[in-house]
Amino acid sequence: MSGSVVGNTVPLCHASCAILAIAGGISGVLAKLATTSSSALGRICVWPDTQKKTNNLSPVAPEVIKTVLYDPLYWPHLSQFIKTCKPIVDAMGNLESRDATLADCMLELIWCARQMMCLQLEDSKDINFWMHAKAVFNREFHAMNTDIHALALFLHPMCWKLAVSQAVKSRTFEQMCMATLDIAKQWCWDGDRAVKLVENLKQYYQCKGPFAGGQANGKDCWENLPISAKSYPLKTPAITLFSIVPHAADVK
Q: By the 8 A CB rule, do 207 and 186 touch?
């Protein structure tokens, strides 16, 4: 297995999962707060023992009391924040599996992008936050949509059309070939093997020969394909990419 391919991809998985974990932690805590009645919190904030130190317990911070009692926009904005983060938190949960692959990461990102596009600005919501959240997500989506991630999606037998669709930042078939040849170059493959690799890619793209059909589990599909990696070299990078999982980044 190429050290450079794995070495370049695992940090991306680590960073991606770290962002999702942070978002998930914050969203989880705030969701509990948002489901608590603001009036109940208001009653707590006016209790005498919450406004002064009691039994070595610190009082409620004045900023908190001010927010709970006198900021009518806090709760609607908190609700907006949670609704915006929910697709990311859901993606994080779906990718916690040890078997989640780079193709799964791309599918979850695409689903998140669709959910973000469907977000509507409601009354009492913050338009600046709404626009900022969408802009940041779009920027980070394009940063995480690397050639390796896109190639992994392309090599999933059920998703190759999505990877080379007309969607924004999707790739062309020629770009998929270049990404695969870059891996072959890192592995120091000779010219004959590289030619076979391109021929395999064309067959796979056209669903011909042994590449017709497929199954939901991409790794199992490639490993169980009744062909040898010597005759069909595309099998090697496909299995390698499906062996790279976010779980390997050891993000809790």
A: no
